[in-house]
Amino acid sequence: MSFVTAALPHNQCGSNGLPLTPNSIKVLGLAQKLKTLKHENLCSYVDFKCGRHERIFAVSELYVDNVLDRIMAPSSLTQKEWNEFSLQTAIGVLSGIDYLHCIGLIHLCLEPRNILLTETGVPKLSGYGLHHMTDGGTLLNGPLGLVKYSSPEQILSCCYPEIPNALSCKADVWALCIVLMELLHKEVLWPDVENKSLVKRVLCLCANKSAQKNIEVLCQDFKEKNLLYETDQAIQSIKTILENGLCVNLSKRAMPYQILKQLDKDKSSVPNPTTNGYKIEYNGNTNPLLEMDSDEVWYLWNLAGGDMIAEVLRSVTTTPSVRTMPSFVTLHGDLYGLEPSPENLFNPGFQLLSLDTVESRLEVNSENISLIYPLLELDTSEEVSHESAKLPLLIRENDFDYQVHRIALYKRLLLGYPYLREKLWKESRIDIPPFCRGKVWSGLLDVQGDIEDQYVHIDKDTPIITDRQIAVDVPRCHQYDSMLSSPIAHGKLKRVLKAWLISHPQLTYWQGLDSLCAVFVHLNFNDEPRAWASLSQFIDKYLHKFFLKDNSAIIQEYLLVFSHLLSFHDPMLYCHMTEIGFIPDLYAIPWFLTMFAHVFPLHKIVHLWDTLLLGNSSFPLCIGVAILQQLRGQLLESDFNECILLFSDLPEIDIDGVVKKSIQVFCQSPKSSTFRVHAHYNTLPKTELSETAIPLSELKQEVCCRISADDLIQLAKLTKSSKPRIFVIDIRSSDEFVRGSIPGSYNFPYIT
Which intervals hold domain Protein kinase (predicted)? Predict the structure, then answer.
């Protein structure tokens, strides 16, 4: 299914002064909810793509058989068997639309072609959610659904949009009844009739006071007019559906669950054929695709070289270029005289995307079975995994076989969380698959408990003092990303931010918090509780006390420790930057306040944070040093003004290089060299040899970091090569040095 969204006027801005959000972006944001819907009578959506000219493509499960084909094709079933098939199809559709109604969605595009059938005859609704993702059709050019299957109130709502609440979920019940009559009679109703005449015929049914009269009128338009007068049990049940669904009066038309209850076929009351939630049926098929979710299959299909838009465009007939020229174009860019056909605006058809390539690469044999089904207690695939881990990250993330193994491994680790947290941590040191990054991050951040219940019970609606600032910042946060630029994403960001503020009353909102939040919302777009819980844990660990109302002492201490760490690892660069007066206060506050989320785009941030989450609260300092060392050549040749210009438009940064260098800096830095009073440490209890708090005024007078006596003792120990890891300089007087000193140290008396 694909459709073109309505065009917006050129050179116009919204009330906030920003350019209007394209309707295609709004649709993409609204459509994300549909990816979470799972029901036995729904075809699951797996993705939505935006192509050229604001065209949206929907990707979902596909079954080659559908109700329309069954109606048109001859059948070998007897009339009694056909009646039963029609009834079971209607019951399945009722169950599907009842599920949609329970979560506040209306189909409004129900027709025989949109009711797909599995190999066992189970009906699956497709094409649903169009009303939701187009905001009631306002983002779409043209009406929703076919006129023939539209209820009277649905048609009237197009003529009189000012009628409040004209549309309801009962419109789907009406559409189902029309489809059911066509299916029962094996005949399409009102073929080859123009839309104008169809509107008249549907509205003429409003004159009938009862559903029974409407049934009689509709039966007269079929060749077989007496099917509903049979005494078959299935026919009686079908009549029950029709009598409850073809009432023009909305108050008398039944809801899906009411019809199911009358039929005593409520799906929720069907006993589960299992006792522990696991399926007991097994047909001996070892195809790994059958064990994967549709989301995972889609991800692997793209990794295998799939290009959905290219596949679709290959199957369509292109229009000659000369026929796509407008009559004239205004100076503002408005086009006139180019009216696209309805078929081009909305295409309900399907394009089958073959899974043959994925299936062939997943073929289970003795050589790759350990890659698809990894064992946690045996390191059978560890050698393969670690060999591949030597490749660049970009290559690993696009390597089909490697990602199949990593995803399978992480799925098992996540199922065993929190008991397998140590193994999860160990594997994350190699890399994290993009497919399950959001869940893995929450595991690394130790997110536990019923976070959904906690999130639901937080009041996110009552206005608070920071609402205005949040409303200003959110529409400007990572707006290059198609999902985060949608109004739906803005709403999610505001709710998660408010939930964090309400759950942390001692803290306040600072600019930059929205950039932090955006990373977690992007990874957990359809799981706000996880985004909120991950954000909370992340701030507690890496930004402890940063968001106090008065955070000056915390920020100053952090920048001083960073400055001392830079002087320890790169004295020349530190001296140059200090000499020209380019201090960390001028460039590093946005770095650390947002953990670099305000500086780098999302695709770089996720790779940086994959490593950051494995380090302690001092690791961001090492990242800052690594970034400066990557810019070392330019900084040493620049004066103050040039440095300001350089950091105002930061040049391209090699994130892979930053990650490797930051790990090196972290490993070469004594633990106590990054000690901070305001840090949130989860380490062993302090001893008398541990680092103690140093007044901020004293820290400002020093140019290098201090280390604790405990670190000094550890570093002074000889290594396997019998070489000390430190060079100890004793600045006491010669007499004191002779009296007692550290073995191997050198005396350089300090003279004032």
Answer: 1-275
The domain of 480 spans 451-542
Compute the distance between CA of residue 586 and CA of residue 644 in angstroms, rounded to an integer. 8
Q: Which tokens sit at 95?
A: 């169950």
**pLDDT higher at 288 or 153:** 153
Say whether both 44 and 145 belong to one domain.
Answer: yes
Q: Which residues are paired to 66 by β-bridges?
A: 116
Residue 266 has pLDDT above 70, yes or no: no
More confident residue, 596 or 744: 596
Q: How far apart are CA 250 and CA 261, in angstroms?
A: 19
Average pLDDT, the chain: 87
- Mark whether 641 and 535 lie in a shared domain: no
Residue 516, both tokens? 């932090």
> Does position 602 have pLDDT exceeding 60, yes or no?
yes
Q: Angle 487-503/528-542 helices, nearest 10 degrees? A: 50
Question: What CATH number does residue 60 fall under?
Answer: 1.10.510.10
Q: Over 70: is that where the pLDDT of 309 sits?
A: yes
d(CA 384, CA 474): 44
Dist. CA 449–CA 377, nearest whole Å: 26
Bridge pairing between strands 729-730 and 746-747:
parallel
Of residues 271 and 358, the one with the higher pLDDT is 358
361: Cβ–Cβ under 8 A, 6 or more apart, which residues?
304, 400, 401, 404
pLDDT at 331 over 50: yes
Q: What is the CA radius of gyration of the chain?
A: 33
Bin 722: left if φ > 0, else alpha if -120 < ψ < 50, else beta: left
Task: Return the bridge partners of 746, or none.
Answer: 729
Question: What CA–CA distance (Å, rounded) separates 656 from 712?
Answer: 32
Distance CA 152, CA 157 (A): 9
Say how far apart CA 632 and CA 455 lie, in whole Å: 45
> For the domain that residue 511 is a member of, what is the CATH number?
1.10.8.270
Please give the DSSP secondary-structure letter assigned to residue 15.
Answer: T
Instruction: Note whether 130 and 34 are same-domain residues.
Output: yes
Give the pLDDT confidence score for residue 125 in this predicted structure: 96
Residues 514 and 600 in one domain: no
Distances from the Cα of 417 to the Cα of 312, 440, 443, angstroms:
40, 10, 7
444 contacts 413 by C-beta, under 8 angstroms: no
CB 636 within 8 A of CB 572: yes
- pLDDT tens digits along 85-114: 999 999 999 999 999 999 999 999 999 999
Helix, strand, coil tally for the chain in percent (to 5): 50, 5, 45
- In this structure, of 539-548, 643-652, 679-688, the range with the lowest mean pLDDT score is 679-688
Distance of CA 609 to the CA centre of its chain: 17
Model pLDDT for residues 57-86, shown as the tens digit of each residue: 999 999 989 999 999 988 888 989 999 999
Q: What is the dihedral of CA 253, 256, 261, 266, to 10 degrees?
A: 170
CA distances to 143, 177, 310, 612 from 662, in Å = 56, 65, 41, 9
Residues 529 and 482 occupy one common structural domain: yes
Report pTM: 0.88
- Flag whether 596 is in a domain: yes
pLDDT tens digit string along 609-649?
999 999 999 999 999 999 999 999 999 999 999 999 999 98
Question: What is the DSSP annotation of 80-113?
Answer: HHHHHHHHHHHHHHHHHHHHHHHTT-------GG
Question: Token digits for 505?
Answer: 């009353």
For 576: left if phi > 0, alpha if psi spans -120 to 50, otherwise beta; the answer is alpha
Alpha helix ranges (H) inside 7-78: 23-31, 67-72
Please give the full DSSP string across 170-195, using - where no structure is assigned: HHHHHHHHHHHHHHHHTS-SSTT--H
> In the chain, how many domains are there?
5
The residue type found at 556 is: Q
Q: Could you tell me if 560 and 700 are in contact, meaning their C-beta atoms sit under 8 angstroms apart? A: yes
Q: Are strands 2-4 and 55-60 parallel, antiparallel or unpaired?
A: antiparallel
